[in-house]
Design brief:
The protein is about 55% helix and about 5% strand. The mean pLDDT is about 95. It has 2 domains: about 100 residues, no CATH class; about 130 residues, no CATH class. It contains 10 helices and 4 strands. Pfam families: CTD11, HNH_2. InterPro entries: ABC-3C_CTD11, HNH_nuc. GO terms for molecular function: endonuclease activity.
Length: about 250
């Protein structure tokens, strides 16, 4: 019978960071401060049970596992003590699948984020983001005709309807505006647009090889652009990624 191992301080920090200090079941904060000290409200829960009883073995016999070693950190997730008790007693397939799905998304994002450092973006793109956030001139907008929209040709069932609508609106509203900003950027820094477009395309191609969901890819591209430009506005970065959807560097 395997024994529960003690998680290292490093592993504890990883687990807490993965759920962003929030219980994935009830959203309760997992740490609290009192008299200048920080205290835990969470526990590292085994997703697949450490020592399942016969009923649990039967219940989960056909379910996916994240690692063959039950004590591997991939099989742990940080949840509050109350939810841990509810998760374990009694165990249900629905809750097991929920935690498994949450952890799989966490692991997928971690894998993608590890690539952020390998894919650069020209620093000049920050000027386009600044124009959107700080110096935006609504009167300069010129809408793209819907018949010229390329999104519907490239989007598949993995892109949610609400995200597709947002991308469509951003393309039709902002495409010409963003294009003009890149023209002006090229006048200051020759061929900067070609560099930026190729960098976006390269990272998109890298993501699409490991992630089949366009929804996830779009979100990761947006986050990557934000992180690589000093935590710039996610909204502005999303508009720029939408531009590259229309321009064919993304969802090609």
């Amino acid at each position: 019978m395997p024994k529960r191992r003690d998680l290292t301080p490093h592993e504890n920090a990883i687990l807490l960071s993965e759920v962003e200090n929030m219980c994935p079941f009830c959203t309760k904060p997992l740490m609290y401060e009192k008299k200048g000290r920080n205290f835990k409200l969470w526990e590292g829960a085994h997703i697949y049970p450490l020592n399942p009883n016969q009923e649990e073995i039967e219940l989960l016999k056909d379910e996916e596992r994240l690692h063959e070693d039950i004590n591997n950190i991939r099989n742990f997730i940080a949840i509050c003590g109350d939810c841990h008790k509810k998760f374990d007693n009694p165990r249900t397939v629905e809750e097991y699948r929920l935690l498994l799905s949450i952890k799989k998304n966490i692991l997928s994002k971690s894998e993608t984020r590890a690539k952020y450092a390998d894919y650069q973006i020209e620093s000049e793109i920050k000027e386009v983001i600044t124009m959107l956030v700080e110096e935006f001139n609504e009167g300069a907008l010129k809408q793209l005709e819907l018949k010229a929209l390329k999104l519907d040709e490239k989007a598949n069932e993995t892109l949610t309807r609400i995200t597709k609508m947002r991308i469509r609106n951003e393309i039709t509203e902002y495409y010409y505006y963003i294009k003009e900003q890149f023209v002006q950027l090229d006048s200051q820094y020759p061929k900067s647009f070609n560099h930026i477009a190729s960098q976006v395309s390269a990272f998109y191609n890298s993501l699409s090889r490991i992630e089949p969901s366009q929804e996830v890819v779009y979100g990761q591209l947006t986050e990557w652009l934000s992180k690589k430009t000093g935590n710039s506005s996610l909204g502005a970065c999303g508009i720029i990624i939408s531009f590259f959807v229309q321009n064919c560097e993304v969802f090609s």
